[in-house]
Automatic annotation (TrEMBL):
Organism, scientific name: Acinetobacter proteolyticus
Protein name: Gp5/Type VI secretion system Vgr protein OB-fold domain-containing protein
């Protein structure tokens, strides 16, 4: 809950709603609990450099905010608010126009007992190379054996 100090500054988190988002500047206009619409900067976790990535932010998204140094003209979005209904469970979903995964050595996906790995030189599924696997053809027109 926000608290006003004797200096006129307000400290503490308050609930807000996204009115608009500018992807180029990574800034939003938010609506405060009293209905004011003010500019807000987004606080990113230290492991998430906003210059190289963008998160999906939509009008109506519910967020937690603070005023920067208690100044009600400068808001900082500190995180998402729990909508308390309609939440998905059991699945992490990434929804963007484009997704880039940048790895120096490899990207590995393990689903159940299956492994899918991408390296700078090959793609493998369960240890079988997509580039270098071989099929043994028995006779023309017949099915081939499984790749090795």
């Amino acid at each position: 809950m926000s608290q006003r100090t004797g200096s006129g500054l307000i400290y503490g988190k308050f609930p807000a709603e996204i009115v608009s988002y500018n992807g180029g500047t990574r800034e939003c206009v938010i609506k405060t609990p009293v209905g004011d619409e003010i500019d807000a900067e987004i606080e990113y976790p230290i492991g998430d450099n906003s210059r190289n990535t963008e998160i999906s932010i939509s009008k109506g998204d519910k967020v937690w905010c603070e005023y920067i140094q208690g100044d009600t003209r400068r808001a900082l979005i500190t995180g998402w608010r729990n909508p308390k209904k309609g939440n998905s469970t059991g699945t992490r979903t990434f929804s963007h126009a484009n997704i880039v995964l940048n790895a120096k050595s490899s990207i590995k996906c393990i689903v159940g007992g299956m492994t899918f790995e991408i390296t700078s030189g090959d793609v493998k599924a369960n240890g079988i190379s997509v580039i270098n696997h071989v099929h043994k053809v028995i006779k023309e027109g017949q099915d081939t054996d499984k790749p090795r």
